[in-house]
Amino acid sequence: MAKLTDHLGRPIVAVTGIGVVTSLGVDKRDNWGALTAGRSGIHPITRFPVDHLNTRISGMVDFLSSSSQGASALTYELAELAAAEAIGQSGISGDFRGPLFLASPPVELSWQSRFAMYGQSDEAEGYARLLAVAHKQNGTDVFSSVMFGAVADRLADRFGAVGLPITLSTACASGATAIQLGVEAIRRGESDRALAIGADGSATSEALIRFSLLSALSTQNDVPEKASKPFSKDRDGFVLAEGGAALVLESLESARARGATVLGILAGCGERADDFHRTRSKPDGSPAIAAVRAALADSGLSDDQIDYVNAHGTSTPENDKMEHLSLSTVFGERVRSIPISSNKSMIGHTLSAAGAVEAAFSLMTMLEGVIPPTINYDHPDPAIDLDVVPHRSRTAEVSAVLSNSFGFGGQNTCLVMTREPV
Predict the structure, then answer these.
(1) Active site members
(2) Does residue 200 sit within a domain?
(3) Which GO terms describe its biological process (predicted)?
(4) How far apart are the C-alpha atoms of 242 and 227, rounded to whole Å?
(5) What digits encode the pLDDT tens for the residues 233-280?
(6) b/e 191-222 (16+ beta carbons within 10 angstroms → b)
(7) Closest Cα partner for 358 from 225, 167, 198, 186?
């Protein structure tokens, strides 16, 4: 009988559907074609005035209909498009009939919306005045539209998910954490399937200003497609971006029983907190190291069985240095020869969606036998000795991938994916 449980006796978790939307396009085929061609989706910001901003570039998805309707509407559209593609590929028809886990930004009303609502009302002063307008504007409850969890509620209704939809926000690790929660639900036997989504349409002027105040963003505006340069000596910050990705997770037994195509296996998840600083990583990299090792242990694989690392690779001076330290500690001398590339060099940093987007690309890497490149690697950092697959994609047989997500607030989540059951 075919193996259906892992090394710890838990149900093996398969991926039967993948969906992706980024600044490179809508659907995984368009994204994959652009990604493997080394094409950048980073461009000048046109959605709002940037005259007085230090950073004037982004990986926004301006081609979507909701891109001018606010972060909540755009996050929903990104999630809905990705989920629809993933469920369509999985072959599941009708209601999804499984739990939904959404990684989403903590969306809030823009200041423009707040001022507009305040100015349109003749009601009582202050909060009561704002509240009255919010409940009347366009016949909708504006406050409800930006409440944390509202997007997941709409998605659950749209796809027929069961149970209470879970919304989580663990900074840049959110997308990977959503996948982890889906994996754990299946392993516990709570469901045969789960829908894990990461989506982020929050590249607003407020977000741009806040990240600029943290000195986290690149200010290399003149040639936008060259600004994100992970692991390069002249890297100066990440590029804010938007995107979404979804995975249909299913027990291998369930997938085989209904004749579904198995696209890959979610073999391991590792998570560790870093309490050193709100935005900086612990200097010795120990939390990131522990997260990588935890993912490997959970998968039952050793470090020498990993064929490729999809790096967090944000292009910030500190993150890339810390990620090199963590990987060199785990992989030892082999770290110089294992391919380690960053999709963020082309799509920018999709924040809450990043872990899910990069998990989707990791699965595509195994399916297609092609490793996406790290572009803009024109000035290698001698302190970071890695094979970053510079400039051009590489044909390779990849059977196991480690995908890293290291976020602000000490959120570290790593995933191990394999082509076949371990």
Answers:
(1) 172, 312, 349
(2) yes
(3) fatty acid biosynthetic process
(4) 16
(5) 999 999 999 999 999 999 999 999 999 999 999 999 999 887 767 667
(6) bbbbbbbbbbbbbbbebbeebbeeebbbebee
(7) 198
Could you give the CA distance from residue 380 to residue 261 in angstroms, rounded to a whole number?
Answer: 41
Q: Is position 129 within any domain?
A: no
How high is the pLDDT of residue 296?
Answer: 98
Q: Which residue, chain included where needed, has tokens 């838990």?
A: 10
Counting the structural domains of the chain, the total is 1
364 belongs to a structural domain: yes
Domain that holds residue 172: 13-108+146-418
DSSP 3-state assignment of 331? helix
Reported as a single tens digit per residue, the pLDDT across 200-242 is: 999 999 899 999 999 999 999 999 999 999 999 999 999 999 9
Q: Facing residues of 416 across strands?
A: 268, 402
Establish if 247 belongs to a structural domain: yes
Q: Read off the CATH number of the domain in which 361 is found.
A: 3.40.47.10
Task: Count CA within 13 A, CB hemisphere, residue 121.
Answer: 21
Residues of the chain with pLDDT under 50: 137-139
Looking up tokens 């690149």, which residue turns up? 218
* Length of the chain, in residues: 422
Query: What is the reported pLDDT for 139?
Result: 45
Residue matched to tokens 């699965």: 363
Q: Which two tokens stand for residue 360?
A: 């989707």
Per DSSP, the chain holds a count of helices (H) and strands (E) of 13, 15
- Predicted pLDDT of residue 45: 97
The pair of structure tokens assigned to 381 is 């950092």
Cβ atoms 226, 271 nearer than 8 A:
no
Pick from 208, 199, 220: which is nearest to 47 by CA? 208
DSSP labels, 115-181:
HHHHHT--SSSHHHHHHHHHHHGGGS-HHHHTSTTHHHHHHHHHHT--SPPEEE--GGGHHHHHHHH
